[in-house]
Write a structure and sequence with these properties.
By secondary structure, the chain is mainly α. It has helices spanning about 5-30, 35-50, 60-80, 85-95, 100-115, 120-130, 135-140, 145-170. It folds into two domains: about 5-80, Rna Polymerase Sigma Factor, Chain: A (Orthogonal Bundle), CATH 1.10.1740.10; about 85-170, Winged helix-like DNA-binding domain superfamily/Winged helix DNA-binding domain (Arc Repressor Mutant, subunit A), CATH 1.10.10. The chain starts with a helix and ends with a helix.
């Protein structure tokens, strides 16, 4: 049975990271909010059950994102559910409806381009630029070397930049 201090500490961690984990899952399962809520609950339940194994000398953020990453891998291993790109883009536009039309158009272009990346590149780009994780955190979550993460991100962003420039040039011709 967890101690009262552990429960209070876990509750504080939960409050601080629940939105980040929800968004991490939401972007990776095709913007299905109900499923993202269910998976986020599963992740925090799993984390709570294993909180006694958490090394408190390491950042909680890295630990919980590792659990989320592994949980998502297991989820996809058992199920390949995807949302058509058009629906995902519509949802993304609704989420960003408070922003300008130009920003929405840019986001739509970028999301289309990101969807054409390999699964591993897409995951890295989302972790870095949507989940706002550092390279060291991404390396710990994925179990890869930080240098490999830096190289993979550099390649993915170069691909996105090149594709964006090509698309932009086509759109202005």
């Amino acid at each position: 049975m967890p101690q009262k201090a552990d429960i209070e500490q876990f509750t504080a961690y939960y409050e601080k990271h629940k939105t980040s984990i929800f968004n991490y899952i939401l972007y990776r399962i095709g913007f299905n909010r109900d499923m993202a809520e269910d998976l986020t609950s599963d992740i925090f339940l799993k984390a709570f059950e294993h909180f006694d194994s958490y090394d408190k000398t390491r950042p909680f953020k890295t630990w919980i994102f590792t659990i989320a990453h592994n949980h998502l891998v297991n989820y996809y291993a058992g199920k390949k559910e995807t949302l058509p790109l058009e629906e995902a883009l519509e949802i993304a536009k609704e989420v960003g409806s408070q922003n300008s039309a130009e920003h929405n158009m840019t986001m739509e272009r970028i999301l289309k381009l990101v969807s054409h990346l390999s699964e591993s590149q897409k995951d890295l780009v989302l972790m870095k630029y949507v989940d706002d994780l550092g390279n060291e955190e991404i390396a710990k979550i994925t179990g890869k070397e930080e240098g490999a993460i830096r190289t993979a991100l550099s390649r993915a962003t170069a691909t996105l930049r090149d594709q964006y420039n090509i698309q932009f040039q086509e759109d202005t011709l």
